[in-house]
Known about the structure:
This protein has helices at residues 11-22, 54-58, 66-92, 290-293, 295-303, 306-330, 346-354; strands at residues 38-42, 97-99, 106-111, 120-128, 133-140, 145-158, 161-167, 170-175, 181-186, 190-194, 202-213, 218-224, 235-241, 247-253, 257-260, 266-269, 339-342, 364-367. By secondary structure, the protein is of the alpha+beta class. The strands form three sheets. Strands 6-7-10-11-9-8 form a six-stranded antiparallel beta barrel. Strands 1-2 form a two-stranded parallel ribbon. Strands 17-18 form a two-stranded antiparallel sheet. A hairpin with a 4-residue loop joins strand 5 and strand 6. Helix 5 (295-303) packs antiparallel against helix 6. The longest helix has 27 residues, at 66-92. The radius of gyration is 21 Å and the shape is globular. Bound molecules: cholesterol. Cholesterol (CLR) is lined by residues 28-29, 33, 37, 46, 49, 84-85, 95-98, 151, 153, 164, 166, 193, 201.
Amino acid sequence: QAGDAVPAAQKGSWTAFIKSIASFSGDLSSLTAPPFILSPVSLTEFPAYWCERPALFSDIANARNAEDRSRRVLRWFISTLKGQYTSRNESMGSEKKPLNPVLGELFYGIWPDADGRGETTLVVEQVSHHPPITAYYIENASKKLSLRGHSAQKTTFSSGSIIVKQIGHALLTVGLPDGGKEEFLITLPRLRIDGLWYGSPYIELAETSYIQSSSGWLSTIEYKGRGYFSGKSHTFKAVLASSSGRSHTYEGQWDTVSKDVRTGEVFTDVTSAKEEVTVRALEEQGDWESRKLWKDVSRGIREGDFEAASTAKSKIENEQRQRRRDEAAEGTTWKLKHFVHEDSDPTYERLGKLFKANPPTEDMYVFLCNAPKFDGSA
Ligand code: CLR
């Protein structure tokens, strides 16, 4: 039944919201949605999904050779998908509309060392508001691993679903024992948001994404949902192949278990608990840090006090508008804190050529290596 999961009083505004999406393409974040679908979490927190299994990330450093390294990178990547794409359904009952970050919004986090995996740190900055673009840098220095990337979306509407094309990519750099390095270009899958009619949206992944290693190994990952080759939702098939023709195939569900097709061995298993990022207490956070910045809006949404949420949100938005007006009047522009923007990414171009990446280049946000110490000093 249409609108089954929508509170009675919000059915009308939900229908209106769905209609406005249908006649719209581009930046969904600017559309007003009914309260029940609002998430109290900002998009600047999402890059943390890359590292919620920190042991799998650090395990990349234990590889014996390039082939093994590519396999471990693929295993870690597949194991992040459940968090990236199903965790709002688990924690809040359905996919929700995240808070739309302001320009300059920051999110810092850490996964502390344990069992010799080393400490992993996270720096996120909202580098554009219109369109929304989020840049991030994740590092496990003791294992010589770093991941830099940026994330933006282009949305369209097709037969009742929202189709989200992800713009941006991630680049994983692995320092090798001999002092050299290996790089991995990671492209991102397409999303389809279904269940809108019922008011209980969820994500299915579609089409293909790639992980190209500078060693030559390439993972080609195909995504399918219910009714396609396995009949199960959240299905993928990944082929890891070298230029010399050797290959491995892994198949299964990215939200539960997958196997090496030839040996039957378990490849990924994300049925155990993940480890959420640790952030500083609110009192220790700066004014631009996401949870501090949005605290009144988030509290309103969480406690069902939508009037308080909306007042607090307007305050932030008005403040932002004033800032942009002041900058225009002074002839200045907002200065990013942790990243420098470049129009093209030479590493993307070089590795992307190997599998004919589309587009042939993308923007790049270079990290300034100025992460604040976690004890609070900037
Ligand atoms: C952001 C980058 C992360 C993976 C990810 C997961 C969920 C996506 C999100 C990205 C972008 C914003 C998104 C969200 C799901 C819903 C939300 C597309 C790609 C849109 C803006 C909200 C739609 C509103 C309906 C839920 C009603 O690594």
